[in-house]
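Assemble and predict.
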Amino acid sequence: EAAVTQSPRSKVAVTGGKVTLSCHQTNNHDYMYWYRQDTGHGLRLIHYSYVADSTEKGDIPDGYKASRPSQENFSLILELASLSQTAVYFCASSDGDYYEQYFGPGTRLTVL
Amino acid sequence: GDKVKQSPSALSLQEGTNSALRCNFSIAATTVQWFLQNPRGSLINLFYLVPGTKENGRLKSTFNSKESYSTLHIRDAQLEDSGTYFCAAEATSSGQKLVFGQGTILKVYL
C-alpha cells in the first residue's frame, strides 16, 4: 500500500482562485515536505514541517501557505492561484534530516 | 550556478549495454539520493547514500564526498529502465534539505 498519498491527483483551477492540495502519510514520519516540479526540471522545496502544527519556509515559499494539522497530514494552500503556479506538486515524508525521503505520486495542477 | 549538476542531460542506450550517470556538487553534500521518475511521473527511490558505494541488482551507485560527485551505473540496460534519473543532495548549507539536479533523461531501445 502507498505510504504517501496525495489528493487530488490532478486539478484545473482558475486564476485568483483558492487551491488546497492534500498529503497523507502512513510512514509515522515526523518530517513532511512540499515540492514543485516544472516541466523538464528537478524538484524545488516550497514548505516543510518537522512537527504537527508547525511549518517552515523552503526555497520558494512565495505564493504558498502550508498547514500541518497532524503528524499524518500536510496541506499546501494557494490562496490566489496564478498562471505561474502551474506545475506538478510532490509531497514527501522522512524520519528527519539525514534520512531518506519518500515521495507521493504527485498532483498535476493547471491554472488557467 | 547549479548546486547539483547532472550529466549527461539525455542519453539513449541500446538494450543490454552499460552506462553511467553523474552528479557533480558545488555544495558540501553529506548524503545523496537517486530517484527514477518513471513515465507515469512517480518518483522511485533507487539509492540513499552516505559516502561510499551501494549496489542493487543491475544498479550501482557511488558517492565521493571529498571529490563532490556521485555516479549511478546501469548494467545490462532494459527497456523498463527508461525514464528520468534525478540525484539530490543534502548539505549543511541547504539546512540538510534536498537539493535536486535537473535530471538525466534515459531512453533504452531495442
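The interface with chain B takes residues 33, 40-45, 48, 58-59, 88, 90, 97-98, 100-103, 105-106, 108 of chain A (CB under 8 Å).
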